[in-house]
Design brief:
single chain, SH3 type barrels
Length: 89
């Protein structure tokens, strides 16, 4: 691993977390979507960044019935998203 002086400065970015359910072609994903402060879920999805950050991730089969994998973090390519809903339940 490179020393921090060689990795470059990476400022901490404050984010809001939204509990979401995301449908892709092959999976349904539950997790917490991270968006910059003062942004909505829609703003994070319309960002020019190719990936969105998710934490507390649970990946299910396409119907959301069988859990396949769990992870603390996932970077999801926005182009693979079919739909997103806020998970208030």
């Amino acid at each position: 691993m490179l020393p921090s002086s060689e990795r470059g400065f990476r400022p901490h970015i404050s984010t809001l977390q939204f509990p979401v359910i995301i449908q892709t072609q092959h999976n349904r994903i539950r997790g917490r979507l991270h968006a910059r402060e003062n942004e909505r879920i829609k703003d994070a999805l319309n960002s020019t960044e190719p990936f969105i950050a998710l934490t507390q991730v649970r990946i299910y089969d396409v119907n959301g019935e069988q859990e396949l994998k769990a992870s603390d973090f996932m970077a999801l390519n926005r182009t693979s998203i079919i739909w997103v809903i806020e998970d208030r339940g």
